[in-house]
């Protein structure tokens, strides 16, 4: 499993595509948070990263599918997936190796965003106390959201041999699971609006962002991760 993880990690940074993907993620965050007025932290009036945590999931909807879209299509096109099965590797080890490598790449992209915390603290008025509980909870929610998006992207790539199709399918599924149920619950008239909203990732992400680590939110994300990884393992195992 770790051999697969190291191979995928090295392969992602073996060309400019990997670096450009991460740079674009950070550039988009920087432009929205410090230039564009709709999310501009400088115009918000408070020492908070709330705008960043509201914006980040939507940028991750593009970043993570770009990271995962080639994981299995490239293997299928090059014929190396069959070679992997000749090694002492199970479908679970192959899938988990690719999942961990992809998630690690996404976490590397998130790491520089910690500088926003020091930037806000430096620009805030003297004596201002940041809501570290909310910020910590938001980062924890973001980590689980990244893991869920990565698992969905990996699963999507296992269903097609075309990276573009894998990207579009992954982005669509992530968007629907994150925002779709919340938007559906706001239509009203169903009588189960709250239950519908709870099905979506956004509800649980917002809950963690309040700084309260609720086991129900963690179980929700872990369930999505395990379920999508299970489907991927079954899909790849069937090809063995």
Q: Please, could you describe this protein's structure?
A:
With 240 residues, this protein is an all-alpha fold. It has one domain (2-239). 75% of the residues lie in helices and 0% in strands. The chain contains twelve helices and no strands. Helix 1 (2-12) packs across helix 6 (91-110), helix 2 (16-34) runs antiparallel to helix 3 (50-68) and helix 8 (132-157) runs antiparallel to helix 11 (201-209). The longest helix has 26 residues, at 132-157. It is globular. The protein starts with a helix and ends with a helix. The mean pLDDT is 83.
The parts where pLDDT drops under 50 for at least 5 residues are: none
End-to-end span in angstroms?
Answer: 16 Å
**Looking at the structure, what is the overall shape?**
globular
**Could you tell me the number of beta strands?**
0
What's the domain count?
A: 1
Q: What's the gyration radius in Å?
A: 19 Å
SS summary, helix count: 12
The profile of the biggest β sheet is: none
Give the averaged pLDDT, no decimals.
Answer: 83
Class computed from helices, strands and strand pairing? mainly alpha
Helix content: over 70%
SSE blueprint:
Blueprint: H1 2-12, H2 16-34, H3 50-68, H4 73-78, H5 80-86, H6 91-110, H7 115-123, H8 132-157, H9 163-185, H10 193-199, H11 201-209, H12 215-239
Helix pairs in contact: 1-6, 2-3, 2-6, 3-8, 3-9, 6-8, 6-12, 8-9, 8-11, 8-12, 9-10, 11-12
